[in-house]
Structure formats: structure tokens, C-alpha cells
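Bench notes, afternoon.
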Amino acid sequence: MSLLEFLVLVIALASLIAAAAHVRLSLQISRTASEVERVMHVLLPKFEEVLEDASLELDEFRRLTGRLGQIADHVETVSGEASRAAVPLIREIEKLRRSKRYLEAAAAGVRKGLETWRERTSPSSSERLSEGV
């Protein structure tokens, strides 16, 4: 057998082995594709159901966050109005406190003045004054 015949034999044998491997690989790919298709037929309805549920939940979440935004805006408005109403009220209460202190001081002054006037105008005080002079 010549070298050329030997090489042709090796190439033919390699081609035969490659063809067998190709057939075997093709069969395995075909079985795998069938299995993937079967799994997809089982999972696709479940996946669509989960996707639909997720879409509904997302819509509900959007509605809820919109409502929470409205509530937050309302709370902010109410707190602003309460603050605007409370500040003048607090100022008026502070003015009343100061007025009360002034009235208490004035009442104490009037009381002391009346006590002094009574002491000076009472009969016993005129005797003390004449004795002291």
C-alpha cells in the first residue's frame, strides 16, 4: 500500500467517523429540541399567568402610589394651613400672657396704693402723724 492509498484510507475512515458523530449529534439535538418544546408548552401558560398577575399587581401598585401621592399632597396642604393658622394664634396667646403680666403688675400697684392710702387716711394714722410731727 502506498502512502497515497494510506492517506486516502485515513481520510475516508475519518470522514466515516465524522459522519457517524454528526448523525449521533443530530439525533441528540433533535431529542433536546423536542424536550425543550415540550417544557415550553408546559411552562408557557404558567409564565403567561404569572406575567398577567404581575401586570395586574403593577397596575394596582401604580394606582396605590398615585393615591399615596394625593394623600401626601393633602397632608402637606393641611399642615401648611394649620401652621398658618397656628402661628397667629400662638402670637395672640403670647400677647395675652404679656397683657396678663401687665394687669397683674397694675393690680399689685393699685393694691399697694390703696393700702398706703388707707394707712394715711385712717384715724389711727392721723394720730400717728400728729404725734410724729
